[in-house]
Amino acid sequence: MTPAKKLLFIFLLFFAALFVSLPNKFSLFGREFTRPNLDFKAGKFELKKNFDLIYGLDLAGGSHLVFEAESSQIAEEKRKTAIEGVRDVIERRVNLFGISEPNVQASSFEGKDRIIVELPGIKDTKEAAKLIGKTAQLVFAEIQGEGENAKLMLADLTGADLKSAKEIFDNTTGKPAVSLEFTQEGGKKFATLTERNVGKQLPIILDSQPLTSPVVQETITQGTAQITGNFTTDEAKKLAIQLNAGALPVPISLVEERTVGATLGAESVSRSIKAGLVGLLMVLVFMVAAYGRLGLVADLGLIIFGVLTLALYKLIPVVLTLPGIAGFLLSVGMAVDSNILIFERFKEERGKRPLADALEVSFGRAWDSIRDANIATLVTTFILANPFDWSFLHTSGPVRGFAITLALGIGISLFTGIVVSRNLLRVFVRENPKFN
């Protein structure tokens, strides 16, 4: 693909991102415009997207709830699994309740196990707190009848009869599976239930929502069973956690509730936008002052960077918090780093060889420094984001928000610095050999 065609693709991408980045309503040349939302339907496939920015609790306001789990009666080796199960169930309940982008975290401190729930945009939390505060209810069911006459009947086998569930690997296939172990009384109920449902599905329901519907292969009398299927390791682990949430029902009680106002958030957003615009303007002026027309190319790349970043925030979507905005502002300054390295190398090379060759050599020799610097920063953002929830690292939501926005900024800055600026310069240098 020629540089001109690449440049055309870049500008098409820019205008598509600009469409996503525009607010729902805006004014232009004295006229009011409304940006249409994406509403696409083809057969059973349906896509609806409103491209709104999603704000976190500190910017949108909302509620902060803290629940304490009564886990003192649970054996120490099972406590962590039980709390993970409770956290997973609470998160599922909140999502089903329709709350946008909740933040649910488990916390253990001084022998107390707590679940912290943040609900952006929710001011009246009574109904949500009531929903969250229920103890997980796990129950087995059987299907009676066939076709349209089939009915789901709840059995007397519940989570109280399930001793434990854990992720294993099937001895025959080697694939991930879930092993179930019942209590003595639960084993008897399970034997009776499987005896009359051989060859049929046996739905397992948690909080009125089906988790899985394994097919009974034979009567099971040993008090243990195995759920097999095309599970991934993560899916098997998640199912085991959900089953344990019902097998080890942990009562929780609301110990803290506070409403976070959005006034401070609105002021923070306004000031952050002003700070970002001032910082962006200063960077634009500096690049032109230091590098002349080369700086104009870098400025155009920086504008494209900003539009692409905002569009990505809306498409993913990224829950924008105040630390997240700080991460974006930091990435603005870093977005021109690659241009500075390339331009400084270009100053050295253009006197030694033809201008077009000097440009290519400058990009090639600056790449090692650009790569190493950005990899170092990406490693830092990985540690701050802590995607695997390692206990020895920070798990704060705001810190993760900062890390995620900074990492996205670095990725997009690499694209604009290497791909956008490079192709802009290739076109300008080819059309104007005296370009400097």
From TrEMBL:
Membrane topology: Multi-pass membrane protein
Gene Ontology terms describing biological process: intracellular protein transmembrane transport; protein targeting; protein transport by the Sec complex
InterPro entries: Acrflvin-R, SecD, SecD/SecF_arch_bac, SecD_1st, SecD_SecF_C, SecD_SecF_C_bact, SecDF_P1_head
SUPFAM superfamilies according to UniProt: Multidrug efflux transporter AcrB transmembrane domain (SSF82866)
Residues of the Protein translocase subunit SecDF P1 domain: 84-143
Pfam families: SecD_1st, SecD_SecF_C, SecDF_P1_head
Bilayer-crossing regions: 273-291, 296-316, 399-420
Keywords: Cell membrane, Membrane, Protein transport, Translocation, Transmembrane, Transmembrane helix, Transport
Gene3D superfamilies: 3.30.1360.200, 3.30.70.3400
Domain Protein export membrane protein SecD/SecF C-terminal: 254-428
Principal subcellular localisation of the protein: membrane
Record's subcellular location: Cell membrane
Domain SecDF P1 head subdomain: 156-250
Gene Ontology CC annotation, any one: plasma membrane
One function term, GO molecular function aspect: protein-transporting ATPase activity
NCBIfam families assigned to the protein according to its UniProt record, in alphabetical order: 2A0604s01, secD
Xref: HAMAP family: SecD_B
Subunit structure: Forms a complex with SecF. Part of the essential Sec protein translocation apparatus which comprises SecA, SecYEG and auxiliary proteins SecDF. Other proteins may also be involved.
Annotated function: Part of the Sec protein translocase complex. Interacts with the SecYEG preprotein conducting channel. SecDF uses the proton motive force (PMF) to complete protein translocation after the ATP-dependent function of SecA.
Family matches, as PANTHER family: PROTEIN TRANSLOCASE SUBUNIT SECD, PROTEIN-EXPORT MEMBRANE PROTEIN SEC
Family: Belongs to the SecD/SecF family. SecD subfamily.
Protein name (Swiss-Prot/TrEMBL): Protein translocase subunit SecD
Organism, as annotated: Candidatus Woesebacteria bacterium RBG_16_42_24
